[in-house]
Amino acid sequence: MKKVFASSRLPGDALSRLAEHCELDTWESDSPVPPAVLRDRLQACEGLLCLLTNRIDADLVAACTRLRFVSSMSVGVDHVDLDALTRRGIPLGNTPGVLVDTTADLTLALMLAAARRIPEADRFVREGRWDPAAPWHPNMFVGRDLAGATLGIVGLGAIGQAVARRAAGFGMHLLGWNRSPREVRGVQVLAFNELLAESDFLSVNVALTPDTRNLLGRDAIARMKPGAVLVNTARGGIVDEQALAEALVAGRLFAAGVDVFGREPVEPDNPLLGLSNVVLAPHIGSASQRTRERMAALAVDNLVAALNGDPMPQCVNPEVYGSL
C-alpha cells in the first residue's frame, strides 16, 4: 500500500477517507511541520498533502525520490516549485472554486470595516472612551460610503467576479483590470493605470505570479485616487506593504483592509501594525467551516485519484499526464 504524508490535520472526515486508500502519516501539531522533519517524513512516501505554509522547493523535491504526487489544500501554489515537480512528472493538485464565495465575502467585509472605521469604533467603545459629555457629534467616526462609489477590481477571475456581483448589490460602479483580455458583465475594463486613478476602492484579487509580484508597488500606489481604500485578499507579495503604510500615514489613502502579507505570520516590525486606519486579518479568506471542509475534501479527491492511477480532478500541471 502506498504511503502519504499529510502535513496537517484537516477539518471534516477527509483524512479518514484518505486513510482507506493508503498508509497515512499525519503531522498532528497545529504548528507547521519543520522543513527538516518534512523532508525526513517524505523519504518513505509516494504522496504528500500539504498546506500553503509548507515550502515545497526544488531541494525538497530532489531529496524525496519516492515522491510521485502532491496535493495542496490551497488555490494558490506559489509555495510550491511547480517546475521542479513537473520535471519529475509529479502532478500537483489544488483546490480551486470552492473558496470563491467565502473569499469574496471577506473582501466586502474588509471593505466595509475599513471604509466605516468599524475596528476603530469598536476599540473606542471597549476602551471606555465614549464620553457621556459628548455622546454624539457630526464628525464622529466619519467614514466612506460604498453606495455610489467606484470599485476597481484587480484580477477578474472567479473571485474578482464574485466581488463584482456583491459590490453591484451595494450600488457601486464597477471597473476592472485583468492580465489577459476578459469581459465581465457589468464591469468596465480599463488599463491598469486608469483603474488606479479612477477607483475609490481597489480590490486585489489576482494570483501571485512573477508578473504580479509587487504589482501594487510604490509607483502604482502613488497613482491611486487620493482618499481611496485598498483591500487585499489575494497574496501579500502583490502589494508593497511599506509603500502602502506610507500612503496611509500621509493621508493619500483613506484606509486599507489586509488579509495577506509578504511574510506570514506578520512580523512585529510590519509598518501596517501600528496604523489605526488599517483592518488586519490573519489570512482567513477561506475560513468558513463549510469552505474549509470542501477544500479538504477536494485535496483528498486529488490524492485518491493519484493513488488509483487516475489523473487528479484538479491538477495545476496536467502536462505531466502526457496524452492521457
Largest sheet: 7 strands, parallel
Low-confidence stretches: none
- State the separation between the terminal residues, measured CA to CA: 24 Å
Note the beta-strand portion: 5-15%
CATH class type of the largest domain? Alpha Beta
Average of pLDDT? 96
Query: What is the CATH homology-level superfamily of the largest domain?
Result: NAD(P)-binding Rossmann-like Domain
The CATH architecture category of the largest domain equals 3-Layer(aba) Sandwich
Strand order of the largest sheet: 8-7-6-9-10-11-12
Shape: elongated
Describe the structure.
It is built from 11 helices and 12 strands. The protein is of the alpha/beta class and 324 residues long. The chain has 2 domains: 3-98 and 289-321, Rossmann fold (3-Layer(aba) Sandwich); 100-280, 3-Layer(aba) Sandwich (Rossmann fold). The chain has a 7-stranded parallel beta sheet with strand order 8-7-6-9-10-11-12, with helices on both faces. It is elongated and about 70 Å long.
How is this fold's topology laid out?
Elements: E1 3-6, H1 14-19, E2 23-26, H2 35-42, E3 47-50, H3 58-63, E4 69-72, H4 82-87, E5 92-93, H5 100-115, H6 118-126, E6 150-154, H7 158-169, E7 173-177, E8 188-189, H8 192-198, E9 201-204, H9 218-223, E10 228-232, H10 241-250, E11 253-258, E12 278-280, H11 289-307
Parallel strand pairs: 1-2, 1-3, 3-4, 4-5, 6-7, 6-9, 7-8, 9-10, 10-11, 11-12
In short:
This protein has 324 residues and is an alpha/beta fold.
What labels would you give this structure?
12 strands, seven-stranded parallel β-sheet, five-stranded parallel β-sheet, Rossmann fold, single chain, alpha/beta, 324 residues
